[in-house]
Design a protein that fits this description.
Elements: H1 6-12, H2 16-21, H3 46-53, H4 57-74, E1 77-81, E2 86-90, E3 98-101, H5 102-126, H6 131-134, H7 140-144, E4 166-173, E5 179-185, H8 192-205, H9 207-212, H10 219-231, E6 239-243, H11 252-262, E7 265-267, E8 272-275, E9 278-283, E10 286-295, H12 318-323, E11 328-330, H13 347-355, E12 366-368, H14 372-380, E13 385-389, E14 404-405, H15 407-410, H16 413-423, E15 427-431, E16 437-442, E17 445-460, E18 463-466, E19 471-474, E20 490-497, H17 524-557, H18 563-574, H19 585-599, H20 607-626, H21 631-654, H22 659-683, H23 692-699, H24 703-709, H25 716-725, H26 733-744, E21 751-752, E22 755-756, H27 758-771, H28 780-802
Parallel strand pairs: 3-20, 6-7, 6-10, 10-11
Antiparallel strand pairs: 1-2, 4-5, 4-17, 8-9, 9-10, 12-15, 13-14, 13-15, 16-17, 17-18, 17-19, 19-20, 21-22
Helix pairs in contact: 4-8, 14-16, 17-18, 17-19, 17-21, 17-22, 19-20, 20-21, 22-26, 22-28, 26-27, 27-28
């Protein structure tokens, strides 16, 4: 039973901690983060346990709920891959943090820094003189036949002289209490952003405890790395960007989060082009140079021209730009070879050769089966081994079935030996590791669960710096194989606790003086998504307003064959809106499309805006299966319109008035103008059925305004004047064109050498052409022509800024 002794508890005044851990029984023979081998609670954990011991189950549940609510509100998710589809799932937080004493962490940090420097030297050798292979320290087959070895990168020296800049390591504590490296992460290490969110969420649960403890902050680590990247820019015009595979990547949320947190652009391969050996980003203001790319996609996908020709997410010419040393990439292309599992077998000798010292932090015991002595050793002890692919870049518990337990073959050693003999060069044997445990809150009690720790190290201007924390991966059961997110594992914050006060760092500059800089250039793809976000949102609102008016009248008559209802049904059918569905599929599709567009620009989207849009999407789907035609649908449409208004209000009140805002606004104004133009052309003519004008005013949210402005009943001319030509009515067509002209004149290159661009001239022509019209001149032919011109205007915008 793991507990404090009574005398110790009385001495420290923390007797309540006994109750907190009385049910915590460490698994026999396992090392545990909270208790030492003698079953005594480690000093670094005592304050936490004392705090837990003073809480009842209800208080703990409320605290954990606060953390979970923060993660939901922040939109933190990971992408789970199933056999048939992928899905976004809430981030699985294990609420009890992992505590490590600062002195122990300093020792670990020395080992981590030694290891990352060793990997830097190995990478420089593999893509340079290749002496490790020549001297027999690495088997040629593990390099030449390795899919992570990129031959086009041989001989290319990174622009800043370094192959590695940001790495992570999966480490675990064994039964003897010592730490081991389970895997190196040098390709595109993930999780640092999640570590930040883990910290925020955990402090929401234990804000009092966090404030009282001397826990090292994380902001200083990220600030130092950001400053280092800024210092490596060779020109003030160079931009720093994070290169993401895109929205469907497992850790896309983190890419957007880090980009927003550090103030970097978030780009995809299609945003970039290589011109005269320079990497350029396509922006609405033209091509702009990229100086540093923090890539989050695998190396081979970065350039379909010289690397993986099947890649659709890379940038042709990227390797050529690296040859010209015009761009720096974090980490260098080809650095993924360092993750090869079989390399772990050769690390001790390589470390002594390159660094003249033994490894401070050793790897898990590994044997490459391509050599007879090692193969025989693995065969002799196969029952205690995990056998897996030699070229794999994942630890044994992360291979999704690729690895097998040697014990499954131990009963037939002859067959096992034959297997290793035949396929030895492709196999590696690793010691079956038993990971230490850490407390997790399971079913109302502290329960030991296997744990591995992911730590991060970054190259700063002062040298390598280790993040004072990281995050722990916690198994969902007693089996270490269930430690991954895909297998149901969870993640916990890691607190590095000092016995002295620690510096409270932030990313805000310390100087009182500042220089106001304008926001960075807007990539064309981001502008495209903002433009269409505006259009989809306004398209959904327009459909909701028509449907609400239709269902309101249907509720009164229950007869959809009435001339007005029949006429609007036919009108909506031409727009692919089916009134037989209370909440049509096309409405759901428009909201989903808006959500997709917003998802592509998560780095530019506020958390509140994202929550509001998600809430709208969930409500639409809910109503689709529960709402019936008539009064029920009318009420549902009103609710959806209010949610839309809430989203629009958040965007209007909070979004910075710069280029991105203008494209979003132009999209809304354009779609609203099209919506009203079509309606006026259909419902204001002499052939329109009775009640069409009143319905038109209702859809245009202008009933009260019409009553106050015109001392007559609804008439074609008054409705046309108010909804088409009134510059003060925010629902009128002219109002939309006035706003479009205002925004267009503020776009990049709207004026060149004092002259309007072709696109700007088109905006002015549209606006002025309608501004001189009178109500009696607005015929159905005029509306049809205006509709075509608005559609053409959208095409010109795309040709000018978005392609």
């Amino acid at each position: 039973m793991a507990t404090l002794s009574t005398a110790e508890a009385e001495k420290t005044g923390k007797r309540a901690a006994i109750d907190a851990v009385s049910a915590y029984a460490a698994l026999p023979g396992l090392a545990d983060e909270m208790v030492d081998p003698a079953g005594v609670v480690r000093p670094v954990w005592r304050h936490l346990l004392s705090t837990l011991g003073r809480m009842d189950g209800s208080e703990l549940a409320n605290r954990f709920a606060r953390a979970d609510r923060y993660l939901r509100d922040a939109g933190v998710f990971y992408r789970a891959y199933g056999s048939k589809e992928t899905s976004e799932r809430n981030w699985p937080l294990s609420h009890i943090p992992v505590l490590i004493d600062d002195r122990e962490w300093q020792s670990l940090s020395r080992g981590i820094i030694q290891r990352v420097e060793l990997l830097e030297r190995i990478c420089a050798d593999l893509y340079g003189p290749n002496e490790l292979v020549a001297k027999g320290l690495l088997p040629p087959a593990l390099v030449a036949g390795n899919p992570e070895f990129l031959r086009p990168m041989v001989g290319i020296r990174p622009a800043d002289g370094h192959f590695l800049h940001f790495c992570s390591f999966e480490i675990g504590r064994g039964p003897d209490g010592n730490w081991w490296v389970l895997a190196d992460r040098t390709e595109a290490p993930s999780g640092a952003g999640f570590a930040l969110e883990n910290r925020v969420a955990t402090t929401r649960a234990f804000s009092d405890l966090y404030a009282e403890s001397h826990v090292h902050r994380l902001a200083g680590f990220f600030g130092a790395f950001r400053d280092a990247l800024q210092s490596r820019k060779r020109s003030p015009e160079d931009r720093i960007a994070i290169l993401t595979p895109g929205l469907n990547n497992e850790t896309y949320f983190e890419h957007a989060y880090i980009a927003r947190y550090l103030g970097f652009m978030l780009l995809e391969g299609e945003d970039l082009t290589v011109v005269n050996g320079r990497v350029m980003v396509r922006t609405v203001a033209g091509l702009k140079p990229i100086g540093i790319l923090w890539r989050r996609l695998d190396s081979s996908f970065a350039d379909p021209l010289e690397l993986n020709q099947r890649s659709h997410i890379g940038t042709p010419g990227m390797v050529d730009a690296l040859r010209s040393a015009s761009v720096s990439i974090v980490n260098a292309l080809g650095s993924g070879i360092l993750e090869t599992r079989a390399f772990l077998a050769f690390m001790p000798k390589i470390c002594r050769h390159l660094m003249g010292e033994d490894q401070i932090l050793p790897s898990i015991a590994t044997w490459w089966c391509g050599q007879k002595p090692e193969r025989d050793q693995v065969a002799a002890a196969i029952g205690k081994m995990v056998i897996g692919p030699a070229y794999s870049t994942r630890p044994f518990f992360d291979d999704n079935g690729q690895s097998v337990l040697g014990s499954s073959r131990a009963g037939a050693k002859g067959k096992a030996a034959d297997w290793l003999e035949a396929d030895g060069a492709k196999l590696v044997g690793q010691e079956l590791v038993t990971l230490s445990t850490t407390p997790a809150w399971v079913n109302g009690r502290l329960t030991p669960r296997p744990m591995s720790l992911r730590v991060y190290v970054a190259r700063t201007r002062e040298g390598w710096q280790v993040m004072p924390g990281g995050f722990a991966r916690i198994s969902s059961g007693e089996d270490a194989a269930a430690i991954t997110m895909q297998a149901g594992g969870s993640a916990a914050d890691v607190w590095i606790v000092s016995d002295k006060p620690v510096e409270r760092t932030t990313l805000l500059p310390a100087e009182e003086t500042f220089i106001r800089t304008m926001p960075g250039s807007l990539p064309s793809r981001a502008a495209d998504n903002l433009f269409w976000l505006g259009r989809y949102i306004e398209r959904a609102e327009g459909a909701l307003r028509i449907l609400r008016a239709w269902h309101g009248r249907f509720a009164e008559s229950a007869d959809s064959s009435l001339p007005l209802l029949k006429d609007i049904t036919d009108y909506l059918a031409a727009l692919d809106i089916d009134t037989k569905q209370a909440v049509p599929d096309s409405l759901v599709a428009n909201v989903d499309s808006a959500l997709f567009s917003a998802g592509n620009i998560r780095d530019r989207f506020s958390a509140d805006g994202w929550l509001a849009l998600n809430d709208l999407a969930k409500t639409v789907r809910k109503f689709q299966s529960t709402v019936e035609a008539g009064d029920d649908a009318t009420h549902a449409m009103t609710i959806l319109l209010r949610k839309l208004a809430g989203f629009a209000g958040l965007v209007h009140e909070n979004m910075y008035r710069f280029t991105g805002w203008r494209f979003l606004s132009i999209g809304r104004y354009l779609e609203r103008g099209l919506h009203m133009t079509r309606l006026l052309g259909h419902m204001s003519g002499a052939e329109a059925p009775d009640g069409a004008l009143d319905m038109l005013l209702e859809i245009g949210d202008s009933v009260m305004t019409h009553r106050r402005r015109y001392n007559v009943n609804t008439a074609p001319l008054t409705v046309t004047d108010l909804l088409a030509l009134d510059p003060l009515n925010p629902r009128s067509v002219l109002y939309q064109l006035n706003e479009i002209r205002t925004e267009v004149e503020q776009l990049p290159n709207a004026f060149v050498n004092g002259q309007m661009s072709a696109f700007c001239r088109e905006a002015v022509r549209l606006q002025s052409g309608l501004a001189v019209m009178t109500p009696d001149g607005m015929t159905s032919a005029v509306y049809q022509r205006l509709e075509l011109e608005l559609e053409r205007f959208s095409d010109i915008l795309a040709q000018t800024y978005l392609n």
